[in-house]
Amino acid sequence: RKSCVLLKNNGLLPLNPDTVGTVAVIGPNANNRTALIGNYYGTSSRYITPLEGIQDAMEGHGRVLYSEGCHLFHDRIEWQPQARIAEAVTVAKHSDVVVLVLGLDETLEGEEGCIDGMEVGDKKDLLLPEVQRTLMTKILDLGKPTIVLLMAGSAMDLSEAQEKADAILLTWYPGARGGTAVADLLFGKASPSGKLPLTFYRNEALAEMPDFTDYSMSNRTYRYYTGTPLYPFGYGLTYGDTAVTGLTAAKDTAMVTVENRGAATEDVVQLYLKDNGSEFAPTNPILCGFLRVSLAQGETKTVEIPIDPKAFTVVNNEGQRIGGSGSWTLYAGLGQPDQRTQELTGKKVLS
What we know:
Elements: E1 5-9, E2 23-26, H1 34-37, H2 50-58, E3 64-67, H3 83-93, E4 97-103, E5 113-115, E6 118-120, H4 130-140, E7 146-151, H5 159-164, E8 167-170, H6 178-186, E9 242-249, E10 253-260, E11 265-275, E12 286-295, E13 300-306, E14 313-315, E15 321-323, E16 328-333, E17 347-350
Parallel strand pairs: 2-3, 2-4, 4-7, 7-8
Antiparallel strand pairs: 1-8, 5-6, 9-10, 10-13, 11-12, 11-16, 14-15, 16-17
């Protein structure tokens, strides 16, 4: 529950099982046990997929309809290409809300190898398999209230879902009983509070980055990327309405005041530091501390967050770690700072 990342929510989430009506659960990962457990795992005594978790949450409240929709990557499940997509569209039309469960599993990302005649391992792009993109377009174009669940272990380009879906929840590979955790978040038993540990780029941005064999950091990772990501490092929404309202700091610690004007939630307060003068400093502020905070509705807390001493150093061209310029700007917020819009309460200059 703490690791899932809410990437978009226009107000559809959390769902109320008493009023939501009929829920359609659609997609190749909706009932895929392999997508629960990722790449390294033991044997659980029980597995609960997102479909099963939603069915449990809706028991005694309303109907749950299911369609696999498509294969994870092949163009057909049976003999006729895309036959199940038509079924999925019918299921969606007869529902009040759609939960579209897409993504990858260990057969598509992980160690290099060959499965079903297809080379797998490192991805060639950031796109979902073509058959899943077709399914997503067909469902989103219906205009039904739709939540996209992404089950994957890496960054994916979800531009179409960001534009058309009502909500997007990144579940990663959530574990053997991850379906229960996902349902708890969808139906508001817990608030999403995870943050992205990496940058989600748009697929076209790959052309601007160094080749895979080029170890240059230019224009990649959150520390050096100069483009506009789909979702930045450290990003993640909650059902609350939290904001940093105060910051005091020294070189070893920061006192951050955070306020929640919405529903009870946990959130992650993050500190970023920018060296103002060193020629060896990364292009963007670097993460130097963070703390998960629990906040009731209307609650305000002041928390102490240690600052990593390494944040005040830089690495020169010989690979030596040396002291920085002596002037730094510290940012406190709930994600990676946009230096153009950061509130003054979340920004301090240190020396």
